[in-house]
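for the writeup, i need someone to sanity check this before i put it in the appendix. the sequnce is what the collaborator sent (i think, or maybe the updated version? ugh). structure was predicted straight from it, no edits. if anything looks off just tell me and ill rerun, i have time this weekend
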Amino acid sequence: MRLSHLFARIGVFLIAAVACTLAAQATVAVVEDVSVVSVQEDLVDGDMPWASVLADGLQVILEGQAPTEASRFRAISAAGRVVDASRVIDNMTVADSADIAAPEFAVEILRGDTGISIIGLIPTETDRDALDARITEIAKGAAVTDLLETADYPVPPRWRDAMSYALRALAQLPRSKISVGADRVTISAIADSAAQKANFETALARNVPDGVKRTVRITAPRPVISPYTTRFTIDADGARFAACAVDSLETEQKIMAAATDAGFTGRSTCVQALGVPSRTWGTAVALAIKAVADIGGGTVTLADTDVTLVGTEDTDQDTFDRVAGVLENALPDVYALTVDLPRKPEATAGGPPTFTATRSPEGNVQLRGRVTDDLANTTAQNYAAAKFGAANVTMGTRVVADLPQDWNVRVLAGIEALAQLANGVVNVTPDRIAVTGNTGDTKAPAIVTNLLIDKLGPEAEADLDITYVKELDPIAGLPTPEECIANIGTVTDGRKILFDPGSATLTSDSQPVLDDIAEILQRCPDIQMRIAGYTDSQGGEDMNQALSKTRADAVLNALRIRRVAVGTFDSVGYGEADPIADNGTPEGREANRRIAFSLIQTVEEPTALEEVEAATETEAAPDAATETTE
């Protein structure tokens, strides 16, 4: 073969090799560009602009800093949808997660007749054994469902206080739902009665931890009243209700409109209760009230479907007959009307037989007057002892013959009526029972009226003069924190809390002072109070500071021993600071050595979220259960 042919062939191969190389490079460039553009477009569509795309042959390389691990995974998945997943190379990083906020610790507790369920997220530092033991103790053998999870993050400052308060509330409320947050406890519960509801609210108001906000919603079922009673009277003292029972707000509005037209000017005391005898109850009561106004005065009593209209001694007979006839025809069919027009009694030589029961503000009860026989006397004494305590009852009764047949029932009804008063007098005569006294229960007049009608019948005559006294109300009568501090100041103005010289030992003369202060604080639940100790200027500043602190602690411990709830108190020593007299004289130094009581002032600013929630709740229409928020 000639040499020229060989070179020609080699040249052809070289040219072909170069052409193939150039073609391959062009193909790779096209594939890389197409892959990069396609993947980049998909990432942009997926709102992942932080990711950049590079190509190396068939491989697609993802770079950039993903905000979260989930975002990184989404980017890899997006690229894998455009090119084969095996060609995707992950060179991405994830942003530092050290600044991620701690989770919000929260617990929901539900307690019912079948047991307790608890779910939520709590700190890992929580003593689970102690928590489980406490829940089991509260459950009292019922089932406990524990769905709690833990997270290893710092414990919020108020978490332990909020959780402790929630568990105390759980132990008191057999049917409840309790939500616990970092600094908030929300309690929803059901009470068996209005009285139990008041007791729950009072108990929950005690020992609320400092800094923990609470919301309490307790509902109680409507009471059942039997007989279903309303009594309305117009006399020289004006128009008033002795009792008022309604089944709905609409019924109450109808009755109050009729009462207003009849001259009633007070606030409604009607009780919404179960047991209404007819859907036409509101109509019947309104007609009966109008009848009393039309005859110029008297009393009308509705006990279930029995309506009793009683005029006064001055009521005109013709007017009474006309109004009674109109009322009888206007009443719904289910109601039966009984009328009575009393006349002035003729003068007699002796007064009617009487029985009087008196209860003093101290709780002492005296029974005086006439009873039918020894058995009736013993029965009255035992009944009073059961109501007021045997040690508080003094008998001054006399056995007399020829008393009315229902006298014993009237006597026992009078004693039961007296039990509804904090103090007062009940006078029983053959035709009337007069009840006069003070009470801390706004429903006491209705309760007394109902029991007298129940025992003596709807035609029973009763004169009630029962005054509501706020100070006797176990809830409304509680003093404000400012009043508590003022009352303590009244005690300490004339008598100082004294200590042995140079020590924190209370003197014997200080014990009565502390007793009086403890008695005041027993009626001041949930007060946040500071006990401050002060000294004179003698001695070193550090020593005076320490001495004043130990003396304040001694007073705090003395109150704790006297069963005062001191969970919301703190004790502080100020040493020789803030003198109130001249330390240059013995009298001034004596005045400066003192214990001072003051309120802990706390100001809480609502967050934006709380303001939005409050505005939303205000617009939403709430009108049901009693709610207490602190």
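Residues 3-45 form the longest helix (43 residues). DSSP finds 16 helices and 28 strands in the chain.
thx in advance!!
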